Amino acid sequence: MTNLDYLKNLNSEQKKAVITTDGPLLVVAGAGSGKTRVLTSKIVYLIKEKKIIPNQILSVTFTNKAASEMQNRVIKMLKSSSKGLPWLGTFHSICAKLLRKHARSVGLNSNFTIIDTDDQVRLIKNICKSENIDTKKLSPKVILSIIDRWKNKGYYPAKVIINKKDIYEKTILPIYKIYQKKLLDLNACDFGDLILHCVEMLEKDNGIREIYTNNFKYILVDEYQDTNFIQGKWLNLLTGKNNNICCVGDDDQSIYSWRGAEIKNFLDFDKIYEDTKIIRLEENYRSTQNILSVASDLIANNQNRVGKDLKTSIQDGELVKLNCFKNGKDEAIGLSDEIEKNLKKNYSLNNIAILVRAIFQTREFEERFLKIGLPYRIIGGIKFYDRAEVKDCIAYLRLVYQEKDDLSFERIINNPKRFIGESTIKQLHEFGKKNSISLLSSSKKLIELNQIKPKAKNGLNIFLNLLLKWQNDLNIKKINHVKLLQIILDESGYSAMLKNKKDLENENRLENIKELLSAMKEFDNLETFLEHVSLATSIDQQWDGQKINLMTMHASKGLEFDVVFLPGWEEGLFPHQKSIEEKGEKGLEEERRLAYVGITRAKKLAYISFAMNRFYQGDWIDSLASRFINELPEKFIEKNVHYEDQPNEYDEFEFNQDFEEDSQIKSPGWIRYQKRIK
Q1: What is the SS3 assignment for 610?
Q2: Would you call 36 a catalytic residue per the annotation?
Q3: 3-state helix/strand/coil string of 519-578
Q4: Residue 625's pLDDT is what?
């Protein structure tokens, strides 16, 4: 083995992965095993030792940040004024570069435009309008998500086979055909086209393909477990006869199937590329041994994996804490107390993270942190009361409560669409300013004077009548503030607007609104709730310096923290019911990989918790501990039960519950009830 300086700090398997250069190589890099160091060292080794020209190395990442980090590391390690690697970048950036050189082969000019999401939505809207398709029933975002799914699978319109179980595909395919033609007419492509067109170009034009297979002597791929079908095909086409492709990743961290990732690419690597060498990086430089043991034993329950055994030279550390709480509110209190009383003394708040399965779960923790003054930030998302749908709901409530609230009026007057455009709103503003009256009063007066355009007038009338009705509901009928919001969402068309747009984004929005309804039940009336929201956002703005990190487990991938909390490990929530219903065993295994990712973010301390009851969607749900808890190894776990020392039906609660996997069973609560009455 070579003793070059940049290899001295590598362990034996890392060195082996660096200096193994000929033929296909799969590096199974466990969490915290130093895969970036291996990739950068391999590039330097190829340049310095194998005398490979930087232009002959294709190195692919998933993010611009990762590409930039690798470029900087390579330049630093080479200790030269080199400009780095011309072919190091993301899948999209490299494909764009290739297409610029050979655009005509796919019917484009070299100065083609890459359109963003807003342009895509606008184009789809225009197509739907011309084809008389109602975008209220089938949203442009849903259409684009299905088109993107087809492109990820390598399907141009002519190759699409309709999935009869999907009620939308039959309608969307003709739109896809028109959409692709429009893009070509505009000399444009979307992000999905960048790879799809490249694959078509390489498949149809052997001359172009030969140029690059001869040029790229070595191909290196980061986060290979996250590649989709078309990305895998693109890599295969560029690999060429020499087969010098090195893919680095961790099948146990494959958690993005919902955006097209194919774990099959990773698991079948040795079938795709003959004579594959597999090297496992099993030395973890992040976590204590107890944390790794818990994560390893849990993920070992997955059948579809390459397999590895993570170990560390770091001491055993503390046992992983498994905490049971009476309810979700107590869970938030218990977690915050642990941070406030024990952890703050020894750990920076910046090094403490709370990882949830679904973004709506942050609400209870945010409420608690605001109450006791613990600063926090949301990573990869927006704070609960700053989320658009939550602000919309609060704007409706504020306007009902106080009709002179112009900011709320302006926010929701055309949300959902009521044909009230910018010119009408400007007219209302000008009239209100001139007469020193509110926007709502301006609306009434201008309608009276018949100075509003017919469509806008009709929309305003409908809205004003609804507003009057809601004010009567609140003030005369004395309808509860929670019920009032439910009525507003129904009668305004806001709920229907979200339900009709079947995509992940709108599903999350609906979850957040349900969580808002749960939050409102904690207050006696509308006034106290609105005051709470105002104070909460005001307190939030005052915080600076160190903050606790709140995020989803998906958003945590690639990050690490001294202390990690993993709340809400309950059936239906984690593993998520939707994932199991839609994907069965594959969905369950991906949920387990997500749990593995969450646990391995922790360097020193990990806390897993669940609640026996959870206030969800405005009702108390009798919950059941996640099946993943039964898979945690006893000897590395410290169990704690947190609730009042008084007799109740849960005093005999057992951690190790038998989970009966029966599709006929309707809810975790039903299972628990059956257990209690036996």
Answers
A1: strand
A2: yes
A3: HHCCCCCHHHHHHHHHHHHHHHHHCCCCCEEEEEHHHHCCCCEEEEEECCCECEECCEHH
A4: 93
Query: Which residues lie below 8 Å from residue 280, measured CB to CB, with a gap of 6+?
Result: 13, 27, 28, 30, 306, 308
Are 213 and 238 in contact, with CB atoms under 8 Å apart? Answer: yes
Q: Which of 20, 36, 577, 617 is catalytic?
A: 36
| pLDDT of res. 504 | 72
571 C-beta neighbours (distance < 10 Å), count: 25
- Domains of the chain are 5-97+196-283 (3.40.50.300), 116-185 (1.10.10.160), 292-375+544-677 (3.40.50.300), 386-529 (1.10.486.10)
Max CA pair span of the chain: 89
pLDDT tens digits along 604-643: 999 999 999 887 666 777 889 999 999 999 999 999 887 6
Cα separation, 123 vs 107, whole angstroms: 19
Does 223 participate in catalysis according to the annotation?
Answer: yes
- In this predicted structure, what is the pLDDT of residue 540? 57
CA distances from 163 to 150, 160, 404 (A): 11, 9, 51
DSSP string of 253-301, one letter each residue:
G---GGGT--HHHHHTHHHHSTT-EEEEE-B-SSS-HHHHHHHHHHHTT
Evaluate whether 413 touches 425 at the Cβ level (below 8 Å).
yes
How many angstroms separate the Cα of 333 from the Cα of each of 369, 514, 650? 9, 21, 19
Residues sharing a CB contact under 8 Å with residue 433, sequence separation 6 or more, in sequence order: none
In the residue annotation, 253 being an active-site residue is answered as yes
Give the Cα separation of 566 and 608 in Å (integer).
5
Residue-wise pLDDT tens digits, 48-69: 999 999 999 999 998 888 888 8
pLDDT, tens digit (0-9, with 9 covering 90-100), for 427-453: 999 998 999 999 999 999 999 898 988
DSSP states of 311-333: B-SS---SPEEEEEEEEHHHHHH
98, 101, 106, 110: CA torsion to nearest 10: 120
**Whole-model pTM?**
0.82
Compute the chain's Rg from CA coordinates. Answer: 28
How many other C-beta atoms lie within 10 A of the C-beta of residue 655?
A: 15
Taking the C-alpha atoms of residue 358 and residue 554, their distance in angstroms, rounded to an integer, is 9
Q: How far apart are CA 200 and CA 190, in angstroms?
A: 15
Q: Give 254's pLDDT tier (boundaries 50, 70, 90).
A: very high
| pLDDT value for 31 | 92
Q: Is 104 a catalytic residue?
A: no
Quick one: which of 225, 231, 229, 227 has its CA closest to 248?
A: 225
Q: Establish whether 288 is a catalytic residue.
A: no
- Please name every residue paired with 58 in a beta bridge, in sequence order, or none if there are none: 219
The catalytic residue among 223, 251, 283, 338 is 223
Model confidence at 193: pLDDT above 70? yes
Mean per-residue pLDDT, 382-411: 92
Q: How far is CA 600 from the centre of its chain?
A: 18
| Catalytic residue (choose from 13, 190, 193, 222) | 222
- 35 among known catalytic residues: yes
* pLDDT value for 539: 62
Beta-carbon contacts of residue 46 (< 8 Å; ≥ 6 apart): 21, 52, 57, 218
- Under DSSP, is residue 423 helix (H, G, I), strand (E, B) or coil? helix
